[in-house]
Amino acid sequence: MPCHGGIVSLSEARARDLLDQTPEWSLEKDATRLTRHFEFENFKGALEFVNRVGDLAEQEGHHPDIAIHWNKVELFLWTHAIGGLHENDFILAAKIDRLLEEPRRATTGLAG
């Protein structure tokens, strides 16, 4: 569901409950940000993953902040309109996790 602001962000307790469904992710900034770090075999694998995340984000209308450092990718999720976390952030995190389970294009892959 779209989130356009004007609602209260999730409490830390609720965010921690939802985090159980996305165990590879972490809460940061007083439980107002959801983050995950990925490591790939090379830059190409990292970039292909970022492009897949970008495609998903466009489909969902919900966009993470992304940092890419050669073979490492950091994703940061929060709902900017409310300055904290919304259930949509956890939904997108779970969908991003599923990208790793889908057949990868070319030679992408997480590092060992």
Cα shape: globular
Which architecture of one domain would the CATH scheme give at its second level? 2-Layer Sandwich
Biggest sheet, open or closed, and with what strands and sense?
4 strands, antiparallel
Beta fraction: 15-25%
Major β-sheet strand ordering: 1-2-4-3
Helix content: 25-40%
CATH superfamily of one domain: Transcriptional coactivator/pterin dehydratase
Q: Quick one: CATH class of one domain?
A: Alpha Beta
Number of helices in the DSSP assignment: 3
CATH topology of one domain: Gyrase A, domain 2
Which spans have pLDDT < 50 for at least 5 consecutive residues? Answer: none
On the 0-100 scale, what is the average pLDDT?
A: 89
Provide a short characterization of the protein structure.
The protein is α+β, with helices and mostly antiparallel strands and 112 residues long. It is 37% helix and 19% strand. Helix 2 (43-60) crosses helix 3 (87-101).
Kindly describe this structure.
With 112 residues, the protein is α+β, with helices and mostly antiparallel strands. It has a domain at 26-101: Transcriptional coactivator/pterin dehydratase (Gyrase A, domain 2, 2-Layer Sandwich). It has helices spanning 12-19, 43-60, 87-101; strands at residues 26-28, 33-39, 65-69, 72-77. Helix 2 crosses helix 3 (87-101). It starts with 11 loop residues before the first helix and ends in an 11-residue tail after the last helix.
List the helices and strands and how they pair.
Blueprint: H1 12-19, E1 26-28, E2 33-39, H2 43-60, E3 65-69, E4 72-77, H3 87-101
Antiparallel strand pairs: 1-2, 2-4, 3-4
Helix pairs in contact: 2-3
